[in-house]
Amino acid sequence: MKKTAQETLAHDEPPTPGTGKVILIIDQTILATVTPTISNHFHVLSDVGWWSASYLFTLSVFQLFYGKLYALYSIKLVYLAAISIFELGSLICAVSSNSAALISGRAVAGLGAAGIFSGSIMVTTMVIPLERRATYLGVMSAVFGVAAIVGPFIGGAIAERTTWRWCFWLNLPLGFMTAILCAFLVRTPPNHHAQPLSSTEKLRQFDFVGTITLIGSLVCLLLALEWGGSTYPWKNPRIIALFVVAAVLAAAFVFVQALPISRVSARTIPSSITASRSVWAAASYAMCITGGVYVAILYIPLWFQVIQRRSVLGSSVMITPLIVGYVVCSVVAGILTSTIGYYNPCMIVGTTLTACGSGLLTTITPNTSTGTWIGYLALYGLGVGLGFGQPSYVVQTVPPKEDVSIGVTLITLVQNLSATVFVAAAQTIFQNSLASQIRSLAPGVSASVIAHTGATQFLEQFPESNRPAVLDAYSSALARTFYLSLGLSCASIVGAALSEWRSMKAPKPGTERTPAGGERSH
Prior knowledge:
This protein is mainly alpha-helical and 522 residues long. It is built from 22 helices and two strands. The chain is globular.
């Protein structure tokens, strides 16, 4: 039997786009490790948050714009352009002479990263058949997990043995090799949907009004979350105004998308996406799983550092059970989904395990044994590994092929925003819970002292006799943040239940896939 063009690409050419996403993950985890070193170099502490926030802003707000680019232009060329922009941002960071230059470089890097995140999946959809895609993406998710573990160790080694600038110089050869491999070893099929369009007609496909209102809404939302509770109180007029403007612009975006315009294809989110129950169910599932695991990853190391007095490196090691569980089940989920042909079972089991794991995490105390918390973390990691990648399979299976790029970028956008929103919510829960408990234990300690004391120096603010009770209060406040992970894990069942059962397997010879996901004879 003669192979199709896509089958030839999938079997005869090594898929390389996943390496781009690995570079991004290592980049983020390395930066987290060397941030204190960079702040010492520039003699600035107030800008620390902006080194990650500027990256997150551009990474989030340009997701759907890249989705449109991938839908209208060569996926391979857009992906290579995104790598080039990320490399430029890394170069600016590596040679930056002050904090402002570093912030600018991170913003440029985020602009490129926005295209790399969704582009990695888009290239995969072109070169790997749908029925084999889950296995490949499952393995890549496992590689991403390993990269997340390796990143902090690389950052620590770089900070101790050489200059922090090598954290960014390192991206240049890695990105260059990725671009070369993709340019010569990956051939994506032509985009038959956009090929007949002229350059002017392609420009008309962009919803500039919708894009501007969406970007404005996201920028206001992210600024409010970045400043709220830290730079300004949540009730500050600036924060309230940002939330109001974000809501107004979001409503304007929805209104523009709902207008009965003649050029329906020019909408930022096409009607095939907005009308799909499964796509929004997948987005809901992605929001819940991502938000929950980011809260856990942020506050579990803090629990080890403060409650068990572990070092920074030691606390990173202690979270290994969660990462190992994620890595193992990412591979298992990919194989199971490819074998069964449906993404729904892994979503349902993932919800069950994450709910159980996060629920058990809310019970930890200073006296919790090592074996107990290892089991809790491993169970939670297993659930996240099973469920995390499934929403991307939904948006590659349900929408029409020409709208898959928008679906993929929508899921990526939801994941990025979910991490930002729920981490901010967890910070509010933690601070308020801790402050209320400390006021009753030590009325003489002011809230400002609590807020501006380092995590590991927190206990030193209290008399020796009060420290056991304060330690219990700190542990209780941290455990309450895990209730947010628990609530999100339980809520993810809605997305799992509402996602349609669509087979990812190739139809039998002589049949074709129907809109309902079944098969019919020619």
